[in-house]
Amino acid sequence: MSSETGREAADTVKPRVVLGVSAGIAAYKACELLRLFTESGHDVRVVPTREALRFVGAPTWAALSGNPVAAEVWDDVHEVPHVRIGQEADLVVVAPATADLLAKAACGLAGDLLTNTLLTARCPVVFAPAMHTEMWEHPATRANVATLRERGSLVIDPAVGRLTGADTGKGRLPDPREIFEVCRAVLAGHPLDLTGRHIVVSAGGTREALDPVRFLGNRSSGLQGYALARAAVARGAKVTLVSANVALDDPAGASVVRVESARDMREAVLGLYGVADAIVMAAAVADFRPSARSDSKIKKTSGEPDPIFLTKNPDILAELGARRRAEAHEGFGPVIVGFAAETHDILANGKAKLERKGCDLLVVNEVGENLAFGTPDNAAVILSSDGTSTEVHRGPKEALAHVVLDLVGARLV
């Protein structure tokens, strides 16, 4: 084989993913996660527990993955699957991960093929728990999760929503597409350098009510803020996402606080100041709001409409910077990251804003038609309070998110 042929063969090697499935009702959702992996070019081996096969049978997993399926160490013993599968994997993801599976993994038990695979894996391991709220909040489960995280596994917090039966609460399996996005970031090699850190991210665009029907708003889609939240989860952080008026699925592993107006966002963000290691203000916060809000819909008349008078909204970023400066003598204060959307004089306006707001980092990007708002890509210059700058060329918003978090992480050491 020529060297060129060898390189071509190497280029076609698919990332090897082990999808572990434990015995929860959410096992059927793992079929969608499997489809996302296979359609994006991954070689997936499904390893269910024996109880999980009561929810989704082996023929389904084999047909969707194109690989054989086994739950016991006694199947195909000559291939030593209990060792080989974990050794050869580039990623192991368990979805859903039940309380029972988390307990077995934390204790190092090896009673079936999946738990053996977890013990032999030397690649990144991601757990996506799903269970009833009481199980997730039980001290035993919390201790098991802490143990797994201390050992370097990524355990994604479950979502809040409808559970089995009529129950609702925290414990729902996150959307499979969101789990997939976290796994993609892990496979890309991003470190778990934010484990134990609490990152607060704001996203979306605030709305300022004019009457019960109309509002003043902006064109922010929330895509960049949501990319930041996903990236922080993938790097091990506890993430609180303060979200204003978006039409996006909740990022897997993030706690979402929904707000509408600038004053709502101020209350939510400042309320998290004392527990945050970093606050990333990616939201487009309205500078102004109507001075008066009509309690009824403003009717169209034959004459000209009355003028709308505006008043200033609170400057959340400046308030964060001022609070941090005031408490600097106490040796505590989160890293503060601002965003500046500019249409002209990008760097000059960005440098002036960085100094005025008192933040550590300012992400400056040009906005306009087909730029930044609502697009999947972005470009920016990240200005630092120490006078340095980092240019990020146009690319996926996830890429910019990880550069921002690289710079945040360097300040948290």
TrEMBL record:
Location of the DNA/pantothenate metabolism flavoprotein C-terminal domain: 194-408
Cofactor note: Binds 1 FMN per subunit.
Record GO cellular component, one term: phosphopantothenoylcysteine decarboxylase complex
Required cofactor names: FMN; Mg(2+)
InterPro entries: CoaB-like_sf, CoaBC, DNA/pantothenate-metab_flavo_C, Flavin_trans-like, Flavoprotein
Residues annotated for CTP binding in this entry: D287, K297, P314, D315, I316, L317, F339, K353, K357
GO terms under biological process: coenzyme A biosynthetic process; pantothenate catabolic process
Domain of life: Bacteria
Region feature (Phosphopantothenate--cysteine ligase): 199-413
PANTHER family recorded: HOMO-OLIGOMERIC FLAVIN CONTAINING CYS DECARBOXYLASE FAMILY (PTHR14359), PHOSPHOPANTOTHENOYLCYSTEINE DECARBOXYLASE (PTHR14359:SF6)
Function: Catalyzes two sequential steps in the biosynthesis of coenzyme A. In the first step cysteine is conjugated to 4'-phosphopantothenate to form 4-phosphopantothenoylcysteine. In the second step the latter compound is decarboxylated to form 4'-phosphopantotheine. Catalyzes two steps in the biosynthesis of coenzyme A. In the first step cysteine is conjugated to 4'-phosphopantothenate to form 4-phosphopantothenoylcysteine, in the latter compound is decarboxylated to form 4'-phosphopantotheine.
Record-given protein name: Coenzyme A biosynthesis bifunctional protein CoaBC
Organism listed in the record: Sinosporangium siamense
Gene encoding the protein: coaBC
